[in-house]
Specification:
Number of strands: 9
Strand order of the largest sheet: 5-4-3-9
Helix content: 25-40%
Distance between the termini: 38 Å
Strand content: 25-35%
Order of helices and strands: HEEHEEHEHEEEHE
Length: about 160
């Protein structure tokens, strides 16, 4: 690992993470005005999202230092969904989840969401409380407990 990575991490500018058994340094993204966020968002919105709506949630929206961009995709599932989720994930530090409706997105206590993958990398363990159904990995969790929070910002429509 690069010594500069440790310096940057110690200065609070980013974090060293292991992805696919390879150590990497990622700068923090802080808020919707961050230049890195704007660049990644442009890439994400360049895809043809058809009838799907994209909502920003999580650290970027809440102005917390984060290394990923949490986006929820909502719309009637069709054959384009999984390829879109996978393509978007390849474009940047996106953590995409599919939700069946906006109402479900707002239910952070009994969140049921789906991903196109079941683990962070090929060597990791599957996310807990999940199962594969029709090509998506459905996960149930309580974000209030998971994030140790009492409230969340309203999701921001991106497209």
């Amino acid at each position: 690992m690069d010594d500069k990575w440790y310096e940057l991490q110690d200065q609070g500018k980013g974090r060293i993470v292991c992805i696919n058994q390879k150590w990497e340094y990622h700068d923090y993204i802080i808020g919707v005005n961050d230049v890195k966020y704007k660049k990644h968002l442009k890439d994400l919105l360049s895809l043809d999202w058809k009838h799907y709506k994209l909502y920003l949630v999580g650290g970027v929206l809440e102005n917390r230092p984060t290394i990923d961009i949490d986006v929820n995709v909502i719309g009637k599932k069709d054959k384009n969904l999984v390829p879109l989720l996978n393509k978007a994930r390849s474009l940047g530090p996106f953590d995409l989840s599919y939700q069946t409706s906006y109402k479900n997105l707002l239910d952070r206590r009994n969140s049921i969401r789906a991903k196109s993958y079941d683990r962070l990398n090929k060597y990791g363990k599957p996310f807990p409380n999940g199962e594969w159904i029709d090509g998506l990995y459905w996960i149930k969790c309580n974000f209030y407990k998971l994030k140790n929070k009492t409230s969340f910002k309203k999701p921001l429509l991106l497209n």
